[in-house]
């Protein structure tokens, strides 16, 4: 089961990056709309 660990960590890292990107986009849109 240990071979799944790197894939899991990679997905978590991608997910965090994705959430940061969404937050950035949301802030950017709010800034443009202001």
Structure explained in plain terms:
The structure is a single chain. By secondary structure, the chain is mainly alpha-helical. 85% of the residues lie in helices and 0% in strands. The longest helix has 29 residues. It is rod-shaped. The N and C termini lie far apart (50 Å).
Helix and strand arrangement:
Layout: H1 5-33
Specify the overall morphology.
Answer: rod-shaped
Estimate what percentage of residues fall within beta strands: under 5%
Q: Main beta sheet: strand number and arrangement?
A: none
Q: What class would the helix/strand composition place it in? A: mainly alpha
pLDDT averaged over residues: 90
Provide a count of the helices: 1
Radius of gyration: 15 Å
Multimeric organization: single chain
Q: What is the string of helix and strand elements?
A: H
Low-confidence stretches: none
How far apart are the termini?
50 Å
